[in-house]
Amino acid sequence: MDLHLKIWRQKDRQTEGKLVDYNLKELNPHMSFLEMLDTLNEKLITEGKEPVEFDHDCREGICGQCGIMINGLAHGPLKHTTTCQLHLRSFKDGETVVIEPFRAEAFPVKKDLKVDRSAFDRIISSGGFVSVNTGQAPDATAIAITHQLAEEAFDSAACIGCGACVATCKNASAALFTSAKITHMVLLPQGKEERSERVLNMVKQMDHELFGHCSNTEACEVECPQGISVLNIARMNYEYNRALFFRKK
Description:
Residues 150-180 form the 4Fe-4S ferredoxin-type domain. The chain has 249 residues and is an alpha+beta fold. The protein contains nine helices and seven strands, in the order ββαβββββαααααααα.
């Protein structure tokens, strides 16, 4: 199959970027989207041109590094799918595909399709952890919890931090990411001890990073490759208001 690509090229965050046209012919429809970008880069390198910079790592839908906008959609047209899990059979022969980086003030472009998502790391560093002594792993039955509670915590912990929720939100909100990290810890006994301090610090850091506010459009859940529920945002709001109510003056 043949594809016409319009790819965002930008030297660095200080330089103005633009969409550049590329044509690729005789592509295998079973190639992944990232393999197609690899093919393009091999072609560009052969021609003595600068290859397209883009994030990737595991290419198995686990690490969350491969996020880009494809025809205006985070990770492309398939639901609950990362960019690396997308294949060319999802496009038509001869189709024009527009490829851009995630757009958010908190995600500045580093080069081409590569953005700086370290704001997520700083949110985690502000409180997304449990302060316990390390050592030998405890017995699996030492802390009894129900199966349902474990499943709910795991559903929130499944967030891979790709940033699709931010990229697809009209306000560039990080509420879904932050709430998922808060929820999966507060549901489990180990995380309850620091629940108030954690939510106050993480929400404060989220605002400091210039992410927008959540306005409940639920677009984040729709585009999330892991299908993280917006109910996490409701729990974060509850935990935040609870922490404010019981905060020591």
